Amino acid sequence: LISKIRPAEKIVKQVTTLASLPHETEFDSSVSGAWRFRLAVPRADIEEMLPALRIVTDIRKGDTPEEYGRAKTAFLKGVEDTGYAIVDLARQVSDVTIPSPKVKAEAASELEEVTEKNVEATANALPGLQDLRGEWHGMIQATGGGDDAEFESPQPAEAVLFDIAGADWQWGPYSVEHVEAQGAANASDGLKLKRLELRSDAASLSVMGAIGGESQDATFALRDLPAPLAGKLIGPLLPDKSLSDFPTIGGDLLIQGHLGGSVAKPEGEVMMRLREGRIGAVKLKSAEARAELNDSRRAEFEAEASPAEGTGLVRIAGTIPLPEAEDQSLAVDWRVREQGMTLLTAFVPEVAEWQSGAAEMSLHVRGTPAAPVYDGVLEVRKARINSPLLSRPIYPANATVRIQRNTLYADDVEARSGKGIVRIKGAMPVLKPRRSGSGETWEGLVARADTAGGVKMTINGLDLRARNIYNGQLNANMVAKGTLTAPELSGELRFSRGTAFVQQQQTSPDEAPSQQAKSGTLSTKQDSRGVLAGILERAARANDPRHGEGAAPENELMTEKNLEKLQNLRLQGLKLVVGPEMSVVYPFVLNFGVAGELTIDGYVDAGHLKPNGTLQFERGDVNLVATQIRLDRDHPNKIVFTPDQGLDPYVDVSFLGSDIRALIQGPASRWTDNLILTSSAQATPGEGDATLSPSEAARIFEGQLVESLLEQDGKIAFSNLASTTLNSLMPKIEAGGNVGKARWRLTAAPSLPGLLSLDPGMDPFSNTSQFTLGSEAEISFGDSLTATLSRNLDADEMRTQLSLMYKLTSKLRLQLKSLSASATRVLFEFSTKD
Fold first, then answer.
1. Labelling 566: which of 23, 481, 639, 761 has CA 20 to 30 A away?
2. Which three-class secondary structure state does DSSP give residue 63?
3. SS3 assignment, position 50
4. DSSP calls for 303-314
5. Any idea of the CA torsion for 101, 106, 108, 114, to the nearest 10 degrees?
6. pLDDT tens digits for range 676-692
7. Burial of residue 242 (number of CB atoms within 10 Å: 0-12, 13-18, 19+)
8. Distance in angstroms (rounded) separating the CA atoms of residues 37 and 14
9. Per residue in 67-97, pLDDT tens?
């Protein structure tokens, strides 16, 4: 604090000395005023100017340097006295207040939340004036108050002359090597710059002329500014997250312009050119834009860019009126030709990338900003488009799409990807039609008749590859109505012969305590169930060979920003069909076969979707490193969606392991509260005295882990580790289908032999003959007869198992099991449930 005040005190003394000098030696003879001073600085730090500026501001209000001296002495004396009192008070508070661990956790959690909000709010903000550092020198001369007789005037006239320069300035992360500023400023004429120049590396900014007065006349030039740096500087001035909607732009910017008019009604023109530019991954041959704001309050603009490879361009030009303009007519023309399509797809790289083909697109906007009228056409022929969402490129793609008086007509759209094909045809309004007071026009009636059937979309056999979301086949027959800006979707979507991935949540080790602190103290039962609820996530980390190398990248589409863009999309009775041969996978842990149908209504938002239907789990297993549990085939194993519960369905599943049985019946959001663990020897879960507590179940899992990983002498069982953990990481091949009323399924996966059975001097991976193929085949005729044949690696030998289940009646079943290493067993099972 003292180091901050002392330079200010020196400056005040210098101001007093300079102000007492004769006018002829310090000021121009034409300068007059009730107060005036001149500040000459041979060298100083820019941060020392902040208290000096505050002093000058207070002197302007009538304070004197003597008052500052007295205030400084009183302030330092107060700080010294208050310091002793604060230390004594802090010692007393620490003696009587010892926060409990719960209070500490809650305080840490609240602090973390506040910190996260502050970081989010200031992430895109520019540094403050207090962050400015560097050296400067020069002269500043100021006068104010008019003539001596007018000193008491409530509105004194003030003027400032300045000639300053600086070097090595640092403003947060931004640096400036050289600064020069010469000019004058006053309340009536604004700022008049003789010269303003900033240089940083190869970039430079120069400004000259009058700014901020009733008559502005200034020119500016910004040369060789890196485009990414310009984005960081402009981003905080734009609405929240709007800059993130644009792709990365590279290259060097040249910006030149002129500012005219007045502060209330500015005018001007600007030209911008991007050299060695790049938009996303697309290199540019040229990119230039011009804009002008004239005295009629209309903005005229023109921009054109062309890619470096091939022929083509993107051009947009037009006139847009400002809200205060008398003429509100709108005129915008947009044209894209040939390889110019690569610039459009550069804005959505997570969806598509244009490769080649013939393309011609034009769009014309007329009318007014409140009631625009769109017309245009798109012609695409033999286009090749790559998409990270598809297993194969789109080729050929042909399309003829028109916009006529705010009505979109998809005359002919057809695209192929491998064996998949997409067809689109129909019409729909771009905007919600407006009816005039005189009634609907003939043109409006025709457009309404054309759009009555909506836009029909048919998808057959499209192979999707949406990373970490879905891999499989998509078939659809849908109709889009409403408007282009607020569509309403109905029809049918079918996902089959594929895998849907459950996203794995990435949580830090310190996150769990903070979450418990937020919810308060948990009961012993709830806390134990919370531990069991984390088994899946811990097992996923244990089984994942990439664990420790950083989190797996999530799909770019599944972001909150992109999902928010779909909130205007409304589903009306959209039928979602899952299966056949559909799996739901939690990586390295869970693999379920699922089938069923859902009908979905509402806007695409978690709080508004209303699904209705049932999904059935046909098969499945959960791998917990050393323990594996499977779905109990005698149980319905389903999840039921109802419109009232939204995306929180009712879960009814049962798992069966070698020593434990688990039953979940209840809402998905509270599945841990409805988890019942029993011994596998008990016929009916949840009944009798065989119900296991979470701690007992944990001991069972621990015992099985020890048996799998340790030999009898306590050494690590590498052979068991190879046949359990490694087998779960090997790739699996699964196929299935229907033949008449029979259903078949075949699963095969390569397996490694036990490591202890190999020659120690041999590389186990050098000979492919060391690999064996574990397989499982299943044939079922409805629910009355099921036969399963499996051949899997167990320790260092292959074992074959045959299982046959025949349903004699609704309550009596016959089961035959034959294992290559043991005798064949025949079991009769009787259940009171149908």
1. 639
2. coil
3. helix
4. EEEEESSSSEEE
5. -170
6. 878 765 545 444 445 66
7. exposed
8. 10
9. 666 666 776 776 666 666 666 666 655 555 5
